[in-house]
Structure formats: structure tokens, C-alpha cells
# Entry
Amino acid sequence: MTEDKKPKIYRAKPTPGAKSAAKPAPAPSEAREGQRIAKLLARAGVASRREIERMIEAGRIELNGNLVEHPSLLLRNLTGITVDGNPVAEPAPAKLYRFHKPNGYLTAERDFSGKKTIYDVLPDMERVMPIGRLDMNTEGLLLMTTDGEFKREMELPKNGIERTYRARTFGDISQNQLEELYRGITIEGMHYGPITANLERRTGRNQWIEMTLTEGKNREVRRVLEHFGLEVSRLIRTRYGPFVLGDLQKGEIEVVRQHDLVQFRKSLK
# Structure
């Protein structure tokens, strides 16, 4: 096979309109063993499981030329699978990157309102997905991975992976008040689990507060600090699990050593 005839390896792209197919793919019940196609494609870095389910509904995924109709189809491997007519490579070992997300960018692949996203900052590289999210006005460590299954594993609340933030705030707060957060707190009907919080330094009514938590609910740090009457002017995530922001500059991305990634994944089991 000449170089220009090698099959193209699929990379995700915006969902087009659905297409029809004459023959359906085998029903999930016909497969005796294997893993769900949505899981395999997520591990291959095509997209998240949820996005893959949408792609299947849109008629974009086929097996040996037949339309795949259900995300629970069981497969031993990705042989014969195509997305938009392009063959999908078997998943390579997961890669993990540390990315310093700047302030003012959405943690999203695209935004139809025209706001800039992290992909406007990232260099031209292999497809990577964010692990969790950082608000548009939050900066700091955002882990990125090529493996959708690892992404899901990192985001599961049951794994209790710690995240650490530093917040610059204005207002009055004491260390005793912050230590109350270790018992958890309920704000407007939303309960937040234990948070370790420390008052780092203060200049007048301005202070830096370090907070470590495991749940990572939407806007959790900001809501908790605002509950104490504090104004948050800057919020930086400095750690996610054992991975730290370190001296990574805004907009920079750096691969995590494979040995460190493998050791961390073993610790989750």
C-alpha cells in the first residue's frame, strides 16, 4: 500500500446530520463477550461515552459497513469500526497532560456564542479531553487526557481524588470559621462535603485562602467563600490528585511521565 492510500485515523469533529444504512449492525445480544462499543471508543480517545452515544444516534458509526444502532454493542476490539467512514485505531496507552488554563477561557470543545475555549489556547497536537472543568474565570491546573475511560475514572466522586485551590479574597474571615468547613456545609439546599481550608496570608482585609476538597461540585469554592461574605477576585487550582501546577506557565501544556501515570492508576484500584 502506498503512503497516500493508508487509511485515515479518525479524530472527532462536529456532528453532521444523520445518514441511513441498509443493514443494521448486530444487536448487543448477539455478542457473547467483550466491552461496550461506547467504552472502547472512549478509550481510543474518539469522544466521551455520552458524545459517542449521540454519534451512534446520528448514524455516524458503522461496523463492517453496517450501521451501529446501540451503544451497548459488545466488541472484543475495534476492528471493522468506522466513524464518518474513517477507521478507528485501537487505543494507545493513555496519556496525561498538565495544562495551565488561563483565566477567561471556557473548558469546552466549542462554544456557539463565540466565547473562547481552552482549545483556542492549546497547540496543534493529538486530541485531548479535559478531566473535570474549571470555570471560565478560574485558572490553574487542568488535566488533559487522550483516554475517555481514564477521564471518567478520574471524575467519579467515589474515587475521592483531592483538588487544591488558592483563592484571593476580600472581606473578614478567621481560621476558626474556615475550620468549620471540615465538617461540611449546606448552602441553599446544596451540601458540600469536608473541605480543608487554611488562611495563608492577610494584608488588611485581603487574604489568600488555600482549600482542598474531593467533590468538585459546580462553583463549589466560590459558593462556599461567598457564603462567608467574601469577594473572590482570583481563583487558581494548584493540584489534582498527585499532579501539581508547579512552575507551568499560563497556556503551557506538558505530558506527565508514563511511569507516574501508571503508578497513580494502580493506586485507584
Q: What stands out?
A: Residues 1-22, 25-31 have pLDDT under 50 and may be disordered. The two ends are 43 Å apart (CA to CA). Helices lie at 37-43, 49-57, 148-155, 175-179, 220-227, 258-267.
